[in-house]
């Protein structure tokens, strides 16, 4: 599912989604799309109950299993009742944000702690489970802390309260919004990438967030940043190496979908959980020892989603790096990633296009947020800030490279941001994401 970006989100509230899932009755035969129409079926009440009851209990057992796992991994997470959270939020009276998967309310617990309570919508049960699973696996100073949950009756998640709101309101808000100086912005940037390093390279597996954007970065009063909203996150299990055999047709699809001769390929690859190979004639996946790759239904926000992932369904941790690169451009320029205007042929302003054009014309200074420029411009008195801003833009251009293999890893980005080493000139992006060369992608290097 691809989410339409909105600047009114808070505490990970999601927006309207465009689903890329296909229905159960969808078939594709020889490139033709066919939809099966099932004949009407009439069930007696007894047969209906016999069919539906196992599904009800299976769902309940899944929640019980998840609850057991949470208590094992993070015993400090509190299981709340709906009544307790209703009292804490004063009857769910102070709304902080609202989205497609739920509404977030401000609350105060019995011990005085301020919290944000997210009431999950009926359509967001899967997202509730994903966030609960991800947040109990990953605990870091720059990842929003899960205080507790409610799984009886309404599904709810209880987070620590971040008084500074989200980065979108602070950076991309109105002209009257608070001005954040460059040192504070740089601190936010370094804290976000520190959180991503932990998500991607932690000892207990790699979590790909898939929705890094200003709305999902929360701030406290001192502009400390934390990553939030793991509703569409994906866990890549890369800690187990094993050999296995995959049978592919000559055209590169599983034999169940084609009749030509097959070939057996053996990979010594990181363990990829629940792989779903797309029926599109693509070559078998190329793995390296340090890269886990999975094929999934595409999810993310327009303007931040990795084009490599969008067009080919290949999910790696580099998808988050692309989103982070776009986030860097947001922070430096105070511009949204996509805006609808009348200045271009299609009526859209794309921040990355402007960044690349100014980079090519050696005019990157024009990309910088004018609120960071004093009355005399970025002169010698703050020359170090200017140099750091320009370095950050070049790092962003490496992060938003079209080919995922060319992008640096999270730890490499952190090293570049933390050092004064010279940043190589990033190569210009390819003209079309559809002109994709798998060989180029597998051999590309940022060095």
TrEMBL record:
Where is the region Disordered?
1-33, 418-447
Tell whether Secreted is among the UniProt keywords.
no
Might you give the EC number(s) for this enzyme? 2.7.11.1
Q: Which PROSITE patterns match?
A: PROTEIN_KINASE_ATP (PS00107), PROTEIN_KINASE_DOM (PS50011), PROTEIN_KINASE_ST (PS00108)
Q: Which UniProt keywords apply?
A: ATP-binding, Kinase, Nucleotide-binding, Serine/threonine-protein kinase, Transferase
Q: Which SUPFAM superfamilies match?
A: Protein kinase-like (PK-like)
In which residues is ATP bound? 118
Could you tell me where the Polar residues compositional bias lies? 7-18
Catalytically driven reaction(s): L-threonyl-[protein] + ATP = O-phospho-L-threonyl-[protein] + ADP + H(+); L-seryl-[protein] + ATP = O-phospho-L-seryl-[protein] + ADP + H(+)
* Repeat recorded as keyword: no
Compositional bias of kind Basic and acidic residues: 432-441
Q: Name one Pfam family in it.
A: Pkinase
**In its UniProt entry, what is this protein called?**
non-specific serine/threonine protein kinase
Q: Which organism is it from?
A: Taxus chinensis (Chinese yew)
The organism's taxonomy opens as: Eukaryota, Viridiplantae, Streptophyta, Embryophyta, Tracheophyta
């Amino acid at each position: 599912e691809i989410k339409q970006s909105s600047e009114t989100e808070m505490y990970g509230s999601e927006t309207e989604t465009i689903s890329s899932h296909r229905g159960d009755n969808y078939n594709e035969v020889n490139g033709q799309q066919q939809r099966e129409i099932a004949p009407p079926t009439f069930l007696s009440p007894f047969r209906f109950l016999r069919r539906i009851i196992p599904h009800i209990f299976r769902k309940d057992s899944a929640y019980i299993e998840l609850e057991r796992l949470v208590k094992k991994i993070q015993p400090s997470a509190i299981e709340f009742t709906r009544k307790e959270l209703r009292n804490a939020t004063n009857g769910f009276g102070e709304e902080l944000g609202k989205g497609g998967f739920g509404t977030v309310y401000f609350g105060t617990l019995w011990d005085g702690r301020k919290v944000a309570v997210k009431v999950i919508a009926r359509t967001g049960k899967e997202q509730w489970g994903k966030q609960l699973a991800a947040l109990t696996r990953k605990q870091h100073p720059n990842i929003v802390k899960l205080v507790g949950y409610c799984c009886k009756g309404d599904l709810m998640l209880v987070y620590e309260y971040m008084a500074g709101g989200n980065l979108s309101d602070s950076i991309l808000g109105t002209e009257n919004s608070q001005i954040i100086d460059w040192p504070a912005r740089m601190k936010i940037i370094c804290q976000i990438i520190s959180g991503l390093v932990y998500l991607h390279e932690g000892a207990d597996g790699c979590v790909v967030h898939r929705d890094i954007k200003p709305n999902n970065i929360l701030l406290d009063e001192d502009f400390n940043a934390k990553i939030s909203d793991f509703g569409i996150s994906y866990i890549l299990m890369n800690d187990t190496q094993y050999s296995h055999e995959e049978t592919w047709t000559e055209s590169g699809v599983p034999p169940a979908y084609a009749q030509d001769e097959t070939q057996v390929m053996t990979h010594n690859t990181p363990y990829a959980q629940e792989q779903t190979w797309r029926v599109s004639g693509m070559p078998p996946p190329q793995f390296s020892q340090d890269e886990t790759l999975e094929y999934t239904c595409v999810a993310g926000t327009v303007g931040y989603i990795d084009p490599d992932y969008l067009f080919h369904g290949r999910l790696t941790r580099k998808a988050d790096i692309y989103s982070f690169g776009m986030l860097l451009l947001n922070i430096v320029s105070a511009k949204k990633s996509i805006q609808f205007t009348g200045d271009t042929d299609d009526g859209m302003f794309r921040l990355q296009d402007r960044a690349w054009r100014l980079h090519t014309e050696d005019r990157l200074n024009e990309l910088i947020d004018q609120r960071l420029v004093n009355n005399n411009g970025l002169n010698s008195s703050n020359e170090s800030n200017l140099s750091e801003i320009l370095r950050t833009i070049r790092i962003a251009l490496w992060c938003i490279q079209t080919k995922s293999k060319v992008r640096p890893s999270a730890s490499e980005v952190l090293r570049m941001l933390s050092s004064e080493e010279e940043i190589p000139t990033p190569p210009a992006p390819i003209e079309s994401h559809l002109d994709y060369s798998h060989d180029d992608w597998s051999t590309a290097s940022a060095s």
